[in-house]
Fold this protein.
Amino acid sequence: MSKKIVSVWFANLAIDRLARRMGNGWRARPFAVVAESGNRIFLTHVNQAAIEAGIGAGMMLGDARAICPGLATRPGDGAADRRFLHALARLCRRFTPLVALDGGDGLMLDVTGCDHLFGGPDALLSALLRTLRAVVPDVRAAMAPTPGAAAALARYGGNGRIAGAFEVRDALRTLPVQALRPDAATGATLMRLGLERIGDLYPLSTAALSRRFGNHLVRRLARALGAESEPLSFLTGRKRHDAVLGFGEPIFLMHQIEAASRHLLERLCSALEHDGLGCRHLTLTIERVDASAQSLVIATAEPVRSAGHLMTLLRERLNGFEVRFGVERMHLEATRTVRLEGVPKSFAGIEIAAPARTGTALARLVDRLANRLGFDHVQTFAPAESHCPERAFVVHSARFTERPNAPWHLTPARPLRLLTHPEPLYDFCREHFSWHREQRRIVAMTGPERIAAEWWWDDPAWPAATRDYWRIADERGNRFWIYRTAAPGTERRWYLHGFFA
C-alpha cells in the first residue's frame, strides 16, 4: 500500500489568528502584521483587502501607509502563531493520529489506511478542509504519496488536489521550481537559466544537477518523486490522566457513587501531583448495566489538584446521574491539564510547608458559582499589555481564566474604578475644581504621569494621542484620577477618569 500524505498550508496564519481575536470585521479593511528589524518596520503578512489596495508583504510600513493611509497594523507574535498552529494540529487528530509540523505555517498528515473511514480520499480531504475553514478561512490542502509532492501541490497546484502513486511525476511537471522550496540563491539561478518548471529538471542527470546546484535541490526532487524517503517528525499526543473503577456487582445508591468518585479523585490527583499538573476540566462517566452511559463535566477557573475541592464540585452535580438498572463502571478523566509550578513536600526527610496561595478562596468561589450557573455567566478580569487605561484589562468568561504570575506592569498605581467615558471638569485650577455642579477644594496633587496611546492603534477616544494624568485628593478624603490632554496645538482640557479607593 502506497502512503497517503496530506499537506495543509495556512497561507495567512498570523492574519487569521489576529482576526479571530479582533472579529471578522477586520477582514474587510486593509490589515497587515508588522515586524521590526533594527530601526525599520516592515510588513510580514497582509490580508486580501491590503493586496487589493496595492500593498504586499515585505514592504516598509512608511511606503505602505503612503499607498493606503487607512492601513491597520498589529505587531507579529511568533510564539502565539506557533501555539495556534499546534492547536490546529490537535484539531487534525480526528482524521489521523500522525500529524507533523511543516515549517511555521503548515502541517503534514499521514492518512494511510484512514481514508476509508471517511468514504475515500476525496471525502477525507473535503471533511478536513471543512473542519479547518471553520477556524481558519485561508487554508489549502493536497494529497500525494510523498510529503514533498503533497506540499508542492498544496502551495502551487490548487486546493484539494489528489495525486496517486503513478500520477506524481505528471502532477509536478507544470509546477514552478519554487514548489520544491530551494534556497533563494538556487531558485534565482534556476529562473535565470530558464528552468522555471519542475518538469524542466526531469531530462537533466542527477550528476549535472548536483554539480551545478548542490545536493539540496537533488534531494528535494528525489523526495518529491518518491525516489528517496522523507521522514516526518510527528507530534506526540499528551499523556492521558484518568482513573477507572469497575464493580463486581452493580451499585445503585448515591452514597456508593459518591464514595467511588472520591476514590477515583484521590487516584487521579495523585497522578497529577506526580507529573506536576493541575486540572482545568474533569469528566466523570458512569457506564450502566444496560450498556448506556452518562457523563458530567466540571471546570475550574485555575488549575487544581486538590481532591477535596474537586469532590465539592462533583458532589453538587452527582444528583444529575440516572442510575436506572445499576452502575457497573465509572471513569474519571482530566480532559484538560495545565502545568503547575509546585514545591516539593519534603527535602532530605524534612517536611516543607507549602506557601499560601493567594486567590485560592476566590478561585474556589468562582468554581462553585460557575459550575452552578455556567462559566459563560461568570466573568473575570485579566491584565492586558497596554498603557492606555481603557485597554489595560480584558473581561472574559471565567472558563478562559489564565492568571499570570504578575501583571505585565506593576507601577504606578491605578484607580479601583474607571469611568466608561471620562467626564470634563470645569473651573479647574491648582486650588479647586467643579464636578457635578459642586466645587471641591484640592488638598493634595501628585503628577503628572504621561500616557501615550500605542502608535498602531487608531482610537477616536484618543484624538490627542497623549494625556497627562494626576492623582488628586479633596478636603473630604476623596481621591480622583484626572488627566489633561497634552497634544500641542490643541485646547488643553481637564477630565475625570477614575476614583481611588
User: Anything to note?
Assistant: The radius of gyration is 30 Å. The longest strand covers residues 438-452. Residues 417-499 form one domain. The chain has three domains: 1-234, 242-360, 417-499.
